[in-house]
Amino acid sequence: MTTKKISILWLIIRNGIEKYLVKNFKIFVPSSAGNYRILGYHTLIGIKKIFPLLSELIYLKTRRPKTLSAITFSKRFKNKDNIKKIKKLFNKYRSDKSKIHNYHLIYGSLFKETNNIKKVFEIGLGTNNENLISNMSSDGKPGASVRAFRDFYGKSQIYGADIDEEILFQENRIKTFHLDQTNLKSLNKVFKKIGGNIDLIIDDGLHASYANVTVIIAGLKYLKNKGYLIIEDISPVTKPIWEVIDNIIKTNYRTYFIKTKSSYVYIIQKSL
User: Fold this and answer.
1) Residue where a domain terminates, one of 31, 58, 85
2) What CA–CA distance (Å, rounded) separates 11 from 179?
3) CA-CA distance, 181 to 84, in Å (whole number)?
4) Which of 103, 104, 183, 222 is 20 to 30 A from 71 in CA distance terms?
5) Residues 27, 141 within the same domain
6) Number of folded domains in the chain?
7) 72 in the same domain as 49
8) Of 15, 30, 58, which residue constitutes the final position of a domain?
9) Nearest by Cα to 268 from 236, 234, 240
10) Residues 96 and 17 in one domain
11) Are 247 and 208 in the same domain?
12) Hey, which of 3-7, 102-106, 249-253 has the most confident mean pLDDT?
């Protein structure tokens, strides 16, 4: 255990969680007099309630974003052959995008002419290092989905990135990079290497809303017109956060909330 972790643990044991909250979550601490136990209690309540309340505030006068099922979304595009093809490829390379999730309904629907797609970038290669967050367990197959996309988009260059440097690789039409998606500087560095006019950007990395927003901030300016930026594996309990995010983004982009087997997927389409 590091010195920092020991000091945090000692602070909590000695003073309770409230003092730790007051010291480390100042943006949520009430601007009020009171001892740290009272302030810490209201800090915790603020952390829990601020986004649900902001969501309620936003939609007092506007409609909430409509949620579509993955099946309904796919029917809009009528690309049954592409859906079958991408599902087979996900399964071939042992990606969980179709077996555990039903993401093949989304990815098979987006582009009718797959040979027109030139650049695809996926964040999160599927590390099987169980010491890292968002790992695919020891049974995971790193690089599965980028290989599936390489075969599906037959004339495209596929880019991938991951925090785990041990799983980076280069293959025919696939290049991968080391990336810390929580760091805007790291993201900008990788996006500059890839260049603009990216047809499809996928965030299948950390699955934390702040990391997702960082990807959106960095990625939108590199997205091709009519291209898509997709955030996977959004927990249902975080939907109020995404309703606030959507209210900001939808003024300039087309957006979709998709309900899949066990999570939400958020889609942004650049439409100038």
Assistant:
1) 58
2) 33
3) 31
4) 222
5) no
6) 2
7) no
8) 58
9) 234
10) no
11) yes
12) 102-106
- Segments forming the whole domain that contains residue 186: 67-269
Between CA 113 and CA 148 the distance in angstroms is: 16
Question: Which pLDDT does position 198 carry in this prediction?
Answer: 98
Same domain, 50 and 91: no
CB 271 within 8 A of CB 225: yes
Neighbours of 225 (CB within 10 A): 10
Tens digit of each residue's pLDDT (9 = 90 or more) over 120-175: 999 999 877 777 777 777 677 899 999 999 999 999 999 999 999 999 999 999 99
Q: For Cα atoms 262, 263, 268, give the angle at the middle one, nearest 5 degrees.
A: 145
Q: What is the pTM of this model?
A: 0.90
* Residues 100 and 168 reside in one and the same domain: yes
What is the rounded CA–CA span in Å between residue 144 and residue 102?
Answer: 16
Q: Would strands 119-123 and 67-69 be described as parallel, antiparallel, or unpaired?
A: unpaired
Q: Supply 76's token pair.
A: 């809009």
Q: How many residues does the chain have?
A: 272
In this prediction, residue 272 has a pLDDT band, given cuts at 50, 70 and 90, of: low
Residues 6+ apart with CB under 8 A from 246: 65, 255, 257, 266
